[in-house]
């Protein structure tokens, strides 16, 4: 059984690749969670996030934006002292801020999912790559979505982070053509 080469480094990566990565995700809160995890990854390797996934879930109340918008200084201090997560104050502040922006988008567009998926006409883009070297870091669509998110007030979501998010949630299918998940 062949899978994308990047996923063969550890059992954690294999499981993520096989069960989650690239599978279309339409639930608004699940999309918000993935957006936050991708923003936490900026400047780090994805395996760092995968290894801290459960700690993130616990620390951030399962990424429930209804709870995150109420985080206060005490909760921020708790997060800053939590060795199980990324303890970057700017990323923590951005997560809280982005939860507030999530609700603005929900109100303005009907759902966060509708807003996100509108950038790919509500269906995954299926790419055909033979090697990881062919996969771009950004695309015109990720550039456009990043700009739109920034316009809506979101932080820590540049085009590279947004493209990784698009791959993770199945907006684009970048599994290699020889991958069993294609």
Automatic annotation (TrEMBL):
GO terms for molecular function: DNA-3-methyladenine glycosylase activity; metal ion binding. Keywords: Glycosidase, Hydrolase, Metal-binding, Zinc. It is an enzyme of class 3 (hydrolase). It comes from Acholeplasma hippikon. It comes from the Bacteria. This is DNA-3-methyladenine glycosylase 1. It holds the Pfam family Adenine_glyco. The keyword Hydrolase applies. Its EC number is 3.2.2.20. Zn(2+) binds at residues 4, 17, 175, 179. InterPro entries: Adenine_glyco, DNA-3mA_glycosylase, DNA_glycosylase. Signal peptide: none annotated. GO terms for biological process: base-excision repair. Coiled coil: none annotated. The keyword Acyltransferase does not apply.
């Amino acid at each position: 059984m062949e899978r994308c080469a990047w996923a063969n480094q550890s059992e954690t990566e294999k499981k993520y690749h096989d069960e989650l990565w690239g599978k279309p995700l339409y639930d608004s809160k699940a999309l918000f969670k993935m957006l936050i995890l991708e923003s936490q990854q900026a400047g780090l390797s994805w395996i760092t996030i995968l290894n801290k996934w459960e700690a993130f879930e616990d620390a951030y109340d399962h990424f429930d934006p209804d709870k995150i918008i109420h985080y206060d200084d005490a909760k921020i201090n708790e997060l800053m002292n939590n060795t199980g997560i990324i303890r970057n104050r700017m990323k923590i502040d951005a997560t809280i801020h982005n939860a507030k922006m999530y609700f603005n988008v929900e109100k303005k567009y009907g759902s966060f999912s509708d807003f996100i998926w509108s950038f790919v006409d509500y269906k995954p883009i299926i790419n055909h790559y033979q090697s990881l070297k062919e996969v771009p870091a950004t695309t015109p669509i990720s550039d456009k979505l990043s700009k739109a998110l920034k316009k809506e007030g979101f932080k820590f979501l540049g085009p590279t982070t947004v493209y990784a998010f698009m791959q993770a949630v199945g907006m684009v299918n970048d599994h290699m053509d020889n991958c069993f998940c294609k």
